[in-house]
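User: I'm writing a tutorial on reading structure tokens. Could you give me a worked example: one chain, its sequence, then its tokens, then a sentence or two explaining what the tokens reveal?
Assistant: Sure. Here is the example chain.
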Amino acid sequence: MTGQCLCGAVRYKIEGELQMCGVCHCKNCQRQAGSAYSVLFGVEDNDIEISGELTTYEDHGDSGNVVYRHFCGTCGSPVKTSLPSQPGMAYIKAGTLDDTSLVDPQIHFWTRSKQPWVEIDPDVLQMSGKPG
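And here are its predicted structure tokens:
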């Protein structure tokens, strides 16, 4: 799998399997995505090779835990999220994939913050807050 930011300055290649694919409706993801939610998928850090320079913003989730949001400093595209509480994992923004047909979200997180006009398939797992 391959992907890139909007301008192409940051590119990545993934060799391993996707660990999960989910949709986050937390307010910070809404702000960062500039949309109603953020679609992301998890991969092991060792399975992704990133070329180009990412800028990092240190955010904090509702839990107070650190959330590193990595984006292209040129075009601003969000590319990756990493959590010190989940070492060895990277969460890639699904819209940056070259082939987004691979995306099949199995879970929606922070649904208590979802926009009222967003409808979620009732057959897909939903969590009102954080996982775990």
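What the tokens reveal: The first helix runs from residue 27 to 33. The chain has a mean pLDDT of 93.
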